[in-house]
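thread: overnight batch results

M.L. [08:02]
morning all. the overnight job finished for the chain we discussed friday. pasting input first so we're all looking at the same thing
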Amino acid sequence: MSEHSAPTPVLLVLAGPAGSGKTTLSERLVAEREGVERVVTATTRPMRPGEVNGVHYHFLSEAQFDEALARGEFLEWACVHGRYRYGTLRRAVVDRLAAGMSLVIAIDVQGVRSVRAAAEADDLLQRTLTTVFVAPATIDELRARLGGRGDGEAEIERRMQTALAELAEAPSFQYRIASRGRDEDFAALLSIWEAARSRR
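M.L. [08:03]
and the structure it wrote out:
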């Protein structure tokens, strides 16, 4: 395949409420399609048994995270549940895209806004970025999925309020998947993936 006919690398960014299935979809895409990698994000949480630094996460101390923030090294970051911080390092994305590798990442809606803002000043990000919003078909389905996680009613209600705010952001995404089932959702994602790859 010549340089001119090679598919454009894709930065596929999935977002959606907790329980929407975005993480499962991104992991399945990596497992079943060649030429796509999961973005390795950074976190301040402790490493768990079996995890490998640089493979599962880039594990940073609080001080290291602060230093990276001060140097502007994050495309996006957030403090999750008021405890540990998570973020996407610019180099983890841009270096791999520049090498021709396509990437997929599942982040929150706020993170997508940050990535979009970064893309406005970065031609490579702008050319490769494709945003996908994944949502359960109905609010009742969303509540049922959240309830199936074993959380208490107060936590479910908190997540529901967050989810409703996130659903309001869906029109700002390039693509939307109304979840129906794992295989149907993955088929929809593959269609989006192929459309994004074929862009010039």
